[in-house]
Design brief:
By secondary structure, the protein is an all-alpha fold. 78% of the residues lie in helices and 0% in strands. It has eight helices and no strands.
């Protein structure tokens, strides 16, 4: 039984717990309401497309510097509140966040697979960015369109 405890990924559990606490803090302090109102003010307020693009763009920028757990903890409460203020389902926002956290290939520092590819392939950071940025933008564009098609009824 003691041997099983050695294989528990403690750093990931601590990161997940901290991210969950951060999400609860956002909701309790009404920062999610403030951020959602700011997003809707920037996008004009009545259309789901622009806020979705903005939230995915925010996650794209954040994915380069912080973990997926933290991005989800920050953007899920904001996205749900944004959807509530728009009077639509939060599902397109949540699915877009899921896609954006899973598919970001711009730097090797965002995940184990990218780090392995860089080290074993002898790629430089410039190589990763040169091929990762266009591929990431393609995936993001496709995920926005697919989320709108399958989860919001816009298309």
């Amino acid at each position: 039984n003691k041997e099983a405890w050695r294989y528990v990924p403690w750093s990931q559990l601590i990161l997940f717990a901290g991210s969950t606490a951060m999400a609860n803090s956002l909701a309790r302090s009404s920062l999610d309401d403030t951020a959602a109102s700011l997003i809707l003010d920037m996008c004009g307020g009545s259309n789901i497309v622009l806020p979705l693009i903005l939230i995915v763009g925010i996650s794209l920028v954040l994915k380069v510097i912080i973990s997926s757990y933290a991005i989800v903890a920050i953007l899920v409460p904001v996205s749900v509140t944004t959807a509530e203020q728009l009077g639509c389902s939060p599902m397109p926002f949540l699915m877009a966040i899921m896609f954006s956290c899973a598919y970001a290939f711009t730097t090797p520092y965002i995940g184990a697979m990218e780090s392995l590819a860089m080290s074993y392939g002898n790629y430089s950071l410039k190589d990763m960015a040169k091929f990762g940025i266009p591929f990431t933008l393609l995936i993001y564009a496709a995920s926005i369109v697919l989320c709108l098609m399958f989860y919001s009824g816009v298309y």
